[in-house]
């Protein structure tokens, strides 16, 4: 619905938060930030949609982290195990294998019952295509949703991509299932957020990033 929008056109606000399609119909597909298919496999007949921003459950309502996520890396699983319901930062210099670790973790969930969402932010289209090809080769794409906001997309779509991926993962959470979400990478989202904030003339902080980054 947004593909034909051009600069200078008149638009009307609906007063609603942006919603994206959610559900098992998205598994095995590559979609953009708005949940529209970009893999050439036809339309997605999702029955439900979900707002990209919802109030998170309070600490009291959350369960304890007591089940591990097996990444397939013995060093990680034995020494610094990641629990279901936990967030983990993968940090390091360029070209040391951060994305490879994340992709291998997704592949390892192929038979675990955990659904995966891979959110590619600000990457080259060729890099994303290689990731999708690798997931297909290892039989993991059928269990995965790939959300793409490539470097050629607008800053707004790159900023919203993690929220869209999270909404898709929360669909499974709300039904008592588990989901692994990989954001690759959030530094690109921060750059997009900086562009938006500067255009909105919000007070910049260190390195011109907004104060809430």
Question: How does this model look, in words?
Answer:
The chain is α/β, with parallel strands linked by helices and 213 residues long. It has a domain at 27-51 and 115-213: Rossmann fold (3-Layer(aba) Sandwich). Helix content is 30%, strand content 16%. The protein is built from five helices and eight strands. It has helices at 74-79, 98-108, 125-137, 155-173, 186-199, and strands spanning 19-22, 30-32, 48-51, 68-69, 82-83, 115-121, 144-149, 179-184. The strands form three sheets. Strands 2-7-6-8 form a four-stranded parallel sheet, sandwiched between helices. The protein has a two-stranded antiparallel sheet with strand order 1-3. Strands 4-5 form a two-stranded antiparallel sheet. α4 crosses α5. It starts with 18 loop residues before the first strand and ends in a 14-residue tail after the last helix. The mean pLDDT is 94. Belongs to the ATPase alpha/beta chains family. Keywords: ATP synthesis, ATP-binding, CF(1), Hydrogen ion transport, Ion transport, Membrane, Nucleotide-binding, Transport. Residues 72-213 form the ATPase F1/V1/A1 complex alpha/beta subunit nucleotide-binding domain. F-type ATPases have 2 components, CF(1) - the catalytic core - and CF(0) - the membrane proton channel. CF(1) has five subunits: alpha(3), beta(3), gamma(1), delta(1), epsilon(1). CF(0) has four main subunits: a(1), b(1), b'(1) and c(9-12). Pfam families: ATP-synt_ab.
């Amino acid at each position: 619905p947004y593909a034909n929008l051009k600069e200078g056109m008149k638009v009307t606000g609906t007063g609603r938060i942006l919603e994206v399609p959610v559900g098992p119909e998205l598994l095995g597909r590559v979609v953009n930030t708005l949940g529209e298919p970009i893999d050439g496999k036809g339309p997605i007949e999702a029955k439900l949609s979900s707002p990209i921003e919802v109030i998170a459950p309070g600490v009291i309502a959350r369960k304890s982290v007591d089940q591990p996520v097996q990444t397939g890396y013995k060093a990680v699983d034995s020494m610094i195990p990641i629990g279901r319901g936990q967030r983990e930062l993968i940090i390091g210099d360029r070209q040391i294998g951060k994305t490879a670790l994340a992709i291998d973790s997704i592949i390892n969930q192929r038979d675990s019952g955990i659904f995966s969402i891979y959110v590619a932010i600000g990457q080259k289209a060729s890099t994303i295509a290689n990731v999708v090809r690798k997931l297909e080769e290892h039989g993991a794409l059928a269990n995965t949703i790939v959300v793409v906001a490539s470097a050629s997309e607008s800053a707004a779509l790159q900023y919203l991509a993690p929220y869209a991926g999270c909404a898709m993962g929360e669909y499974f959470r709300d039904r008592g299932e588990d989901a692994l979400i990989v954001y690759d990478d959030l530094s690109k989202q921060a750059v997009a957020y900086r562009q938006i904030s500067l255009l909105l003339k919000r007070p910049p902080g260190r390195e011109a990033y907004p104060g809430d980054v």
